[in-house]
């Protein structure tokens, strides 16, 4: 197996990068986030994962070792191949994925093209005990991934007949009270109080 590739960046396309290693150009399939860090003509070292199929050998390149390990772990879930695993990492960082899986947050996982409600539930069920806790690495600013309680309170208010706009304002109003481990029921009650005052 090829653990990493180190060389000069010869080309960067929309979905891959070519690194020149010892006079040979190796094409690595990468997420947009990884590609954004590469500059043509500059040296780069990318951890890699090789996927062997009957008709192809595909090399996937990653920004760091954490992303590579997450990519390989995602593929152990049934129905998740290398392309879907890469799509998941293109939309969500490894820590965002850990938070979504640990928090049973199917809504965040279904933001990934190719993952429906059932697929998201299967990924959560199969990986929850193995994906581990967030490492404190880079995360996106998607509030749904960071705070699943927001969606739960929002859906609760909409279910009770409030408009999505009013529900969003109420969620923002109670956000400072959320703390480390938010009590969704208490936050929902607080949000209802802010709406009844308005």
TrEMBL record:
Quaternary data = Homotetramer. Forms an RuvA(8)-RuvB(12)-Holliday junction (HJ) complex. HJ DNA is sandwiched between 2 RuvA tetramers; dsDNA enters through RuvA and exits via RuvB. An RuvB hexamer assembles on each DNA strand where it exits the tetramer. Each RuvB hexamer is contacted by two RuvA subunits (via domain III) on 2 adjacent RuvB subunits; this complex drives branch migration. In the full resolvosome a probable DNA-RuvA(4)-RuvB(12)-RuvC(2) complex forms which resolves the HJ.
Chain's role: The RuvA-RuvB-RuvC complex processes Holliday junction (HJ) DNA during genetic recombination and DNA repair, while the RuvA-RuvB complex plays an important role in the rescue of blocked DNA replication forks via replication fork reversal (RFR). RuvA specifically binds to HJ cruciform DNA, conferring on it an open structure. The RuvB hexamer acts as an ATP-dependent pump, pulling dsDNA into and through the RuvAB complex. HJ branch migration allows RuvC to scan DNA until it finds its consensus sequence, where it cleaves and resolves the cruciform DNA.
- The highest taxon in the source lineage is Bacteria
Write out the ranges of the annotated region (Domain III). 145-198
List where in the cell it is found: Cytoplasm
Question: What keywords appear on the UniProt entry?
Answer: Cytoplasm, DNA damage, DNA recombination, DNA repair, DNA-binding
A single Pfam family it belongs to is HHH_5
Q: Which GO terms describe its cellular component?
A: cytoplasm; Holliday junction helicase complex; Holliday junction resolvase complex
What Gene3D superfamilies does this protein's entry cite?
A: 5' to 3' exonuclease, C-terminal subdomain, DNA helicase RuvA subunit, C-terminal domain, Nucleic acid-binding proteins
Its BP terms in the Gene Ontology are: DNA recombination; DNA repair
Its predominant location is cytoplasm
The UniProt entry's coiled-coil ranges are none
Q: Which molecular function term from Gene Ontology is one that the record holds?
A: four-way junction DNA binding
Q: Which family is it part of?
A: Belongs to the RuvA family.
| InterPro entries in the cross-refs | DNA_helicase_Holl-junc_RuvA_I, Hlx-hairpin-Hlx_DNA-bd_motif, NA-bd_OB-fold, RuvA, RuvA_2-like, RuvA_C, RuvA_C_sf
Helix-hairpin-helix DNA-binding motif class domain segment(s): 72-91, 107-126
Q: Please identify the protein, giving its name as recorded.
A: Holliday junction branch migration complex subunit RuvA
The record's comment about this protein's domains reads: Has three domains with a flexible linker between the domains II and III and assumes an 'L' shape. Domain III is highly mobile and contacts RuvB.
- SMART domains from the UniProt entry: HhH1
């Amino acid at each position: 197996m090829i653990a990493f590739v180190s060389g000069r960046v010869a080309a960067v396309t929309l979905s891959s990068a070519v690194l020149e290693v010892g006079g040979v150009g190796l094409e690595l399939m990468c997420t947009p986030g990884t590609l954004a860090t590469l500059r043509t003509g500059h040296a780069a070292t990318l951890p890699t994962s090789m996927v062997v199929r009957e008709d192809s050998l595909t090399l996937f390149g990653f920004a760091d070792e954490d992303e590579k390990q997450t990519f390989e772990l995602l593929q152990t879930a049934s129905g998740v191949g290398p392309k879907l695993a890469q799509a998941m990492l293109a939309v969500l960082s490894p820590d965002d994925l850990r938070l979504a899986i640990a928090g049973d947050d199917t809504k965040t996982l279904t933001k990934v093209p190719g993952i429906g409600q059932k697929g998201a539930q299967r990924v959560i069920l199969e990986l929850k005990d193995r994906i581990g806790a967030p490492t404190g690495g880079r995360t996106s600013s998607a509030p749904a991934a960071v705070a699943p309680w927001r969606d739960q309170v929002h859906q609760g208010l909409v279910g009770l007949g409030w408009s999505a706009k009013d529900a969003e304002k109420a969620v923002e109003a109670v956000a400072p009270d959320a703390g480390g481990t938010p009590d969704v029921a208490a936050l929902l009650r607080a949000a209802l109080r802010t709406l009844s005052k308005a």
